[in-house]
Amino acid sequence: MQYSKPMIDLILELRRRVPSQLKPGIKLANPEVLQELADFYPHCKETVTRALIKELFQMAGDDWMAELEPKSEAKPEKSHQVKVYRGQVTLTERPNPGEEEAKKKDKPVRMYRGQVVYR
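User: That's the sequence. What structure does it adopt?
Assistant: Structure tokens below.
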């Protein structure tokens, strides 16, 4: 990637602002400098540093702006349910509503003399 003069200035300013453990990786000779900044962005608490990283990634292009977006997992979070039985506390996963319907559909239907038996 070709860095422009404003991008170089932003990288040098970011090198001064990041914590000391990240400084060795934030240099122009490092080809992964933008990826390291993208990894640091969600953990950064300083608004000025976050703004500088965002401005740098706007100059780098739309592909890099997508790196700053929070990563959403396709897997939904499961909720848990606390059950207490005779003093024993257990934590069980609560099934999603879609999973419950699928389980009900998979159950065989009970029949008695041609009639459906409900329980």
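The longest helix spans residues 47-60.
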